Amino acid sequence: MFTVAAEPDTAIRVLTAAFADDPVFRWLLPGDGLDAARVFRPVVEQAAAQGELVVDPDAAGAAVWLRRGAEAPAGDDTQLPDELARLTAFMILAEQRHPVGREHVYLAFLGVVPGAQGSGTGGRLLRERLARADAERVPAYLEASTSRSRLFYERHGFRTTGGPIVLPDGPRLWPMWREPRP
């Protein structure tokens, strides 16, 4: 059983380790001196405020879910620093493909630290929240950042929706949707 993380810093540490070699993450932060917490913190804190931030008991994995309404969220006028210009591009491209018209839960990040990958932690984190979504009759959405993660999510009922999101001079992400199961 996983618990909602009371302290977002634990989730940020897990995600920083888990995504260190992820192609999208490396594209977002190509320099070695950039602080990954700047990318993770706002989303992690939003998920914690919604009661949707979950960390496994050993701090080996974290899932960052956001509840999304049927309408697109209001635009954010926050100006990001120039060194985060790629993050701005990512957010624009991803939001253009994010489904509207139905309330759903959005898996912003699911990460497992390298030493625990393949242990089933990610699957347990995913199954636990998807079971609640199924009980609530709410679909789920995510963007898979690798072919391997795409296959993982397909095993849990997600299906690719259209072509990939192509980042400028960067990797692709696959938007994926999962209808609630009866």
Account of the 3D structure:
With 182 residues, the protein is α+β, with helices and mostly antiparallel strands. It has a domain of 116 residues. Strands 1, 2, 3, 4, 5, 6, 7 and 8 form an eight-stranded mixed sheet that branches. A hairpin with a 5-residue loop joins β2 and β3. The protein starts with a strand and ends with a strand. The mean pLDDT is 87.
Our count of helices gives 6
Computed CA radius of gyration, to the nearest angstrom = 15 Å
Beta-strand percent range: 15-25%
Q: What characteristic shape results from the CA principal axes?
A: globular
Helix percent band: 25-40%
Task: Count the beta strands.
Answer: 8
The overall pLDDT, averaged over residues, is 87
Q: What class do helices, strands and sheet pairing give?
A: alpha+beta
What are the low-pLDDT stretches, counting only 5+ consecutive residues below 50? none
H-E string? EHHHEEHEHEHEEE
Span between termini: 22 Å
Main sheet makeup: 8 strands, mixed
